[in-house]
Write a structure and sequence with these properties.
This protein is an alpha/beta fold. It has two domains: 124 residues, Rossmann fold (3-Layer(aba) Sandwich); 107 residues, LytTr DNA-binding domain (OB fold (Dihydrolipoamide Acetyltransferase, E2P), Beta Barrel). Helix content is 34%, strand content 32%. The chain has seven helices and 17 strands. Strands 2-1-3-6-7 form a five-stranded parallel sheet, with helices on both faces. Strands 12-11-10-14-13 form a five-stranded antiparallel sheet, covered by helices on one side. The protein has a three-stranded antiparallel sheet with strand order 15-16-17, with helices on one face. Strand 8 and strand 9 form a beta hairpin. The termini are far apart.
């Protein structure tokens, strides 16, 4: 079994020791590749270790776990928060945490959280290469798996209206007016979906070309989607957008 490269960050050495003991008892496949006690040291460890899984405290001496996540927002890993404070839960899940464990941590809750992280890591390993293989072979799939903090949603590409970056996660808007908060960056979706008829009109916006209603050339240039939403077009994208619109048949 492939090791799950794991980093532990907590300013309490007793907490780290307890996590290591519980993880060793339940998950022999978990390999601890780094430890840290704060934001600055944690950022260094994460960039060096590039883990699959991070167990992260929130309140630390030199800042918060959220501060750390902002610093390493370009890195991808499964995230489990460990903290004594429950008021941060909503914000934690906006950072796409697998789980949020309150101290003192119940070993059984830790076990379930790591099991969920393992499932999501397995999905990432199996699903994304399969999708990329479809695109490379010009066999555009009709559906895509959309990964939220607690579920995997299967959606038809034609039902996706647009996607918008929100920090290190992405919000997808559907033609039926619904939306989902996804745990991947817009760039990852751009790499998958641009070959399937989507266009990165702006650094923060990826749109389904089939659902563009019009392109307004004034006010810097923007797209109007079929739901009436206005999406800005970056200056460097204007030519590409115009050319594709002119070639619509």
């Amino acid at each position: 079994m492939k090791p799950i490269r794991t980093v532990l960050i907590d300013d309490n050495p007793h907490a780290i020791r307890g996590l290591k003991e519980d993880l060793a008892r339940w998950f022999p496949e978990v390999e601890i590749v780094g430890e840290a006690e704060g934001v600055v040291s944690g950022a260094k460890v994460l960039r060096q270790a590039r883990p699959d899984l991070l167990l992260l405290d929130i309140q630390m001496g030199d800042g918060t776990g959220f501060d750390l996540l902002e610093i390493v927002s370009d890195l991808r890993f499964q995230l489990i928060f460990t903290t004594a404070y429950d008021e941060h839960a909503i914000r934690a899940f906006r950072f796409a945490a697998v789980d949020y464990l309150l101290k003192p941590i119940d070993p059984e809750e830790l076990r379930r959280a790591v099991e969920r992280a393992k499932q999501q890591l397995a999905w990432q390993a199996d699903r994304l290469p399969m999708l990329k293989d479809h695109f490379e072979k010009k066999q555009t799939p009709k559906t895509i798996a959309l990964h939220t903090a607690d579920k995997i949603h299967i959606a038809r590409l034609e039902d996706l209206l647009r996607l918008e970056a929100e920090g290190n996660y992405t919000k997808v808007f559907f033609t039926n007016g619904k939306n989902l908060l996804l745990t991947k960056t817009l760039k990852e979706f751009s790499d998958l979906l641009e070959p399937a008829g989507f266009i990165r009109a702006h650094q923060s916006h990826l749109v389904n070309f089939a659902h563009i209603r019009e392109f307004i050339k004034t006010d810097g240039g923007y797209l109007v989607m079929v739901d009436g939403m206005k999406v800005p077009v970056a200056v460097r994208k204007r030519v590409e957008v115009l050319e594709r619109l002119e070639n619509v048949k």
